[in-house]
Amino acid sequence: MTNFKNNFPFLNKVTYLDSAAMMQKPLSVIKKISDFYLNSAINIHSQNSKIGYENSDKIGKIREKIARFINAESEEIIFNSGTTEAINLFANMIKKFLKKGDQILLSPLNHSSNLIIWIKIAAKIGAEIIYSKKIIDKISPKTKIIAFSQTNNSILVNLNLVEIWKKAVKYDAFVFNDATQAINYQKVSLKLCHGLAFSSNKFYGPTGLGVLAIKKELLNKLEPVKFGGGTVAEISSKNIVYYNGYRKFEAGTLNLAAIWGLGAAVDFINAIGIKKIAKKLQVLSIYLYEKLEKIEKIEIFSKKGNHIIIFNIKEFNASDVVSYLGNNNIYVRSGTFCVPFLEKILKKRSFIRVSLAFYNDFNDIDRLISVLEKKEFLNFV
Length: 381
Fold this sequence. Notes:
- The chain is of the alpha/beta class.
- It has two domains: 5-25 and 273-380, Aspartate Aminotransferase, domain 1 (Alpha-Beta Complex), CATH 3.90.1150.10; 40-271, Type I PLP-dependent aspartate aminotransferase-like (Major domain) (Aspartate Aminotransferase, domain 2), CATH 3.40.640.
- It contains 13 helices and 15 strands.
- It has helices at 27-39, 50-69, 83-94, 116-125, 135-138, 161-170, 216-219, 256-272, 274-292, 318-327, 342-346, 362-373, 376-380, and strands spanning 15-16, 77-80, 103-106, 128-131, 143-149, 174-178, 195-199, 210-214, 232-235, 240-242, 298-300, 308-313, 330-331, 333-335, 351-355.
- A seven-stranded mixed β-sheet has the order 2-8-7-6-5-3-4, with helices on both faces. It has a four-stranded antiparallel β-sheet with strand order 11-12-15-14, with helices on one face. Strands 1-13 form a two-stranded parallel sheet.
- Strand 3, helix 4 and strand 4 (128-131) form a beta-alpha-beta unit.
- The two termini are 36 Å apart.
């Protein structure tokens, strides 16, 4: 396996095993963001200048690049602040198609961002929330919205996206895919849903930027729920005429530097290849699992081969273990990871999570295991 750590300066300082929370950024992304501020810090709305025009053209090309990556068209791509905002935007725009008695089908493993807004909307309209890990089994004529994560940040579940899409289309239900955790190692496609979202920071890109993609035929039927400059062609004292397409959904000044960085992140991943990333993650994941299962009193809740592994060490508090690891410059996560039903599903209050990325290697895993096996661990907690 090629060692890519030289591309990630921060990894020289720490053993980083918390990529499900935030991925580290390669130098190419960092340099691209810096390049924007050093050489091209002009708003794309200021097109009456050479740099302004170049910026507008560059953002357009990055939009096209992202669209190709997720089997979409450039006019279906909407930039925003992150997956949380993207989900809220989609839900608040799609709710006009809901009526009392309709069902919203959710996975109990959804991130809270993909639960809260649907619960609020259902309560206001009088719709019914249905929870199921087996999404396809619960799709019925009453189902109006299906919202899930292609893969989540705790227990990885393989969903048959093709069959879910076919059945949803049969019953005229809208499908939304939170692709945040999947986007960096799985194929993500707008062809199999009406809308999808992901965050740049889970994609080797900068924080503060997300993508919401919506099928063009649906996008043209939606009205914005966020208002501001850059979205309207004409305003009179009593009337507003919006631009067509994605423009009416991108209010205000975009995070241009972050978009530049995201474009570089797409290039970085394309240069490696999604299949190669997935293959390396599986090899590392099996190695990690086999090392972890030898630790005394360990309880593993994930399947062998999953690159996100959650576990506990019996008789010890998860947060204490994570604090101990942090004191040894090893960064993992404790808690339920914004998955509110995880405690009920696994009947534990808190967990330790290790999440791998392509930049990790066997040495990272060996260091984690070595520190966990030290007798000082028992004394610390």
